[in-house]
Predict the structure.
Amino acid sequence: MDINKVGVVGCGLMGSGIAQIAAQAGCDVVVREVDEALCAKGKGKIEKFLGKAVEKGKMTEEDMNAVLGRMTFTTELSGFSECDLVVEAIIENLDIKRELFAELDTICPPHTVFASNTSSLSVGDMAASTNRAANFVGLHFFNPVPLMKLVEVVRTLETSDEAFDASCAFGEKVGKVVVRAKDSPGFVVNLLLVPYLLDAIRALESGVATKEDIDAGMKLGCGHPMGPLELLDFVGLDTTMYIADIMFHEFKQYRYSAPPMLRRLVASGRHGRKTRYGFYDYRK
Ligand code: 3HC
């Protein structure tokens, strides 16, 4: 099964990156957002990223225009009727995702593979809202999608070999290293990353060191590109809390429980870089 025409639902941080790399890999891409303003905002993000690549001499202007020319933005799901693959990158809410997939199921032909970019929700639960559980996978990309080299391809109990192999091939086609994972909460990366991030907050909470020293420790001591508190600001404190809550609900283990400091920061609107204030202050 060859994947040449791709639909992406949601053009936020993750959706815009997924749409961009699919178009860069030569696929025709349809992107759906809920209104024209969000379509324009999503397209603007992709233009900005590609524009920077041109500035850095990593891409020609002609190539940038060709990539943009392969993308169509729409507010209608009906635009997905000819897609080989539809990747969902909307809000992490199981009911909303299930509703979306049930509707897509009535629009897309039987061969279309459905994929969710969920970081921690059950892919099998989403697949159960459709009549194509065999044609359903998780495709978990990492932020920033065009720069991070990994995609986790997730198979449920029902995923067919054909759909799984086609999804892995798609991951490679868009230039990623593929890690194959079962439909288990957090897959591989978040299973390990989330407790680490939460432990960094616990270390700060208990006064082991300053945030700067915790970050410097992990950057310089372990060669990570960002320290854990910097990374929390980058991923989003609200997003991390949400993922931790889902994982805690599944495993009932302390290592996935969101520390009080995280809840207080989220409640006060300090969500990280997106609100320009998290553990660090980006307002200046
Ligand atoms: N086009 C093409 N290339 C670009 C580019 C663009 N628009 N912008 C940057 N680049 C290239 C740069 O040229 C550079 O390449 P080079 O090394 O060949 O020169 C490279 O990308 C890195 O860019 P920068 O130098 O501008 O930025 P940094 O070196 O500061 O790296 C970063 C930024 C990649 C975000 C790095 O800090 C990093 O890897 N951070 C960790 C991110 C991470 O862990 N993400 C995963 C989060 S978890 C997640 O997403 C899962 C979810 O479920 C929670």
User: Anything to note?
Assistant: The first strand starts at residue 5 and ends at 9. The chain is about 45% helix and 15% strand. The two ends are 50 Å apart (CA to CA).
